[in-house]
Amino acid sequence: MGKISFEKFVLDNGLTVIVHQDTSTPLACLNIMYDVGSRDEDPDRTGFAHLFEHLMFGGSVNIPDYDGPLQLAAGSNNAFTSTDITNYYITLPVENLETAFWLESDRMLNLAFTEKSLEVQRNVVVEEFRQRYLNQPYGDAWLLMRPLAFSTHPYKWATIGKEEKHIEEATMPMVKAFFEKHYRPKNAVMVVAGNVKTEEVKQLSEKWFGPIQKGEKPVRNLPVEPVQTEAKRLEVERPVPLDAIYISFHMCGKENDEYYKWDLLSDVLAGGKSSRLHQKLVEEQRMFTSVNAFVMGERDPSLFTIAGHISQDRTTAEAEEAIWKEIELLRTESVGVTELEKVKNQVEANHEFSEMNLLNRAIGLAYHELLGDANSINEEAEKYQRITREDLQSLAHENLTVSNSSTLIYKRKS
User: Fold this and answer.
1) For residue 247, which of 140, 398, 139, 406 has the smallest C-alpha distance?
2) Are 367 and 33 in contact (CB under 8 A)?
3) What is the dihedral of CA 386, 392, 395, 400, to 10 degrees?
4) What CA–CA distance (Å, rounded) separates 295 from 306?
5) How confident is the model over 159-174, as pLDDT tens digits?
6) Smallest Cα–Cα separation from 183: which of 227, 230, 133, 217?
7) Pairing state of beta strands 303-310 and 288-295?
8) 101 neighbors 209 (Cβ within 8 angstroms)
9) pLDDT tens digits, 187-226
10) Residues near 209 by Cβ (< 8 Å), separated by ≥ 6?
């Protein structure tokens, strides 16, 4: 795939625009990433960023029906929210690109706030909270783990919010204030990708986004999570099919080069069926029916987690001990030469495969621009390749400790 080429310009109102030309596709993507996530919420009014993911599809002042015109233009759209960002995207035939500019600029200009749309979306989000997080096996894992592992930083609540009532009690003035603060040109990056030319994108950007008032870039001054000095633990009983264990460790944020070591460490443990945890704990010992290790990928210092569903004939104590034995091996012995090469190759292959998709490239460019430099997307592969066996052992030895761990145990409710 090679490097992702792009050009960048900034409108007078502060909107950063990135153009990625790909002449091989008849499609175009318009992706707008707002620099707002659940970490930017008031601790007493959580879930607002995710609520806005829904409200933004409720229509704007000049376009009350967002989906209708897009369907006529043969386009599709969606959005997602995380602890750090909110992202909206449209994919459509390149000849209909201006429809995407029209739709996205109008809802940035002036979202249609009505009591009816707020009521509808409040109900949708509360129902999602219940179905996906409260009434699904292990659905509340991160509602439990985040406040267990974080004492101070707003990562201590999930993107869906702390509790249903924060959304149920959202009022129109609260919603309008959140929109005015965060959904402004200076707080967004727009990427236009596909068979497009920079001059054309400049002209359309000036036409549709140029008149929007810039507003101010919100000042972010988040509390820093203190260093964890003792193990934390929570055991819950739930109507789940199998006992389960989650062990999380504090790690660096996405903007730190150490992040790439953590990511490789997770692959050594659980990157596919030939990985350590799957081979030893699932295939050989039959301790778990499934086990995984992963990083959260958040911008501020976040969590590295090992999680697994425990076989019915094993106890949670046996499972926990087995995980710690594998952690101890990482802390005391270097990863094998072949093992490290394998996970590096997997990362490179996954990276290449992901970037075959035009929308993924657009989202990646927007995210890296928010991190500080869109071109850093082209430097990631090299950062992985530079990692050594000693780097991984040192990282594990220093950080995968009992005092830095938070353990969540699910026990089946009989």
Assistant:
1) 406
2) yes
3) 150
4) 9
5) 999 999 999 999 999 9
6) 217
7) antiparallel
8) yes
9) 999 999 999 999 999 999 999 999 999 888 999 999 999 9
10) 11, 13, 15, 17, 101, 105, 108, 185, 190
